Amino acid sequence: MLKTLSPVLVAALLASAPAFAQDTTEETAPTDAPATEMAPVEGTDGAQAAEDLSLGEPVDQVGQPYVREEFGDWALRCLRAPEGQDDPCQLYQLLMDENDNAVAEISMFPLEDGGDAAAGATIVVPLETLLTQQLTLTVDGGQARRYPYTFCNPAGCVARVGFTTEEVNLFKRGSAATLRMVPAGAPDQEVNLNVSLNGFTAGFESADAQ
Asked: Domain for residue 156, yes or no?
């Protein structure tokens, strides 16, 4: 079986300490007793304290990812670029199995001059994938296409693929795609993940406009 990409978060139990009441038989101090005055600490007046406060400084966020906008089941994820440059963005979707476990992810991006490819995609799957079986993608049960894996790293195994203009149009007109992979531990089985195309057209056009 394939392991999920995201770790399971375990909630910590908070223990509260009991409060204890203390009985006393001492007489109550007279209500007219003078209150004890606290002597001012040297150097802690308002002016001096303001001078000692740090106002902080901006943190360089170049390279930090953020979600600019969401389109149906897709998110437009961008990276903060240096000042004066446009933030590069890709259309992203996290792929879940039938038990709602995060298994894979796909990021798509338009190409200005990609030759036969009008768009590219980076697909990340778990390390426990049988690489020799490659990756298969179909749109609405149509013609399947097989893609090789490019490399693996601690985050998973990556397939970098390209799509023609016709294939991009299939994504725009379609309702769902299916991503198929084979587990290394069970080569006689296969895992099929649903890729929702809800919001793809608007999201891809937004990414293209970036």
From this structure: yes
Mean pLDDT, to the nearest integer, of 78-100? Answer: 90
- The mean pLDDT of 94-122, rounded to a whole number, is 92
Retrieve residue 23's tokens.
Answer: 């009985």
Predicted model pTM: 0.70
C-alpha dist (Å) from residue 53 to 17, 26, 46, 47, 58:
34, 44, 11, 10, 16
Q: What pLDDT is attached to residue 93?
A: 98
d(CA 183, CA 168): 28
Distance CA 181, CA 105 (A): 13
Domain region containing 151: 65-209
Torsion angles phi and psi, residue 205, rounded to 5: -65, -35
Q: Give the DSSP H/E element, type plus range, for residue 151.
A: strand 151-153
**The two structure tokens encoding residue 100:** 């709602």
CA distances from 23 to 19, 26, 29, 75, 143 (A): 13, 9, 16, 61, 82
38 contacts: CB under 8 Å, gap ≥ 6: none
Residue 25 lies in a domain: no
- The residues that bridge with 137 in the sheet, in sequence order, are 145, 179
* 38 part of a folded domain: no
Q: Compute CA 139 distance to the chain's CA centroid, rounded to the nearest angstrom.
A: 25
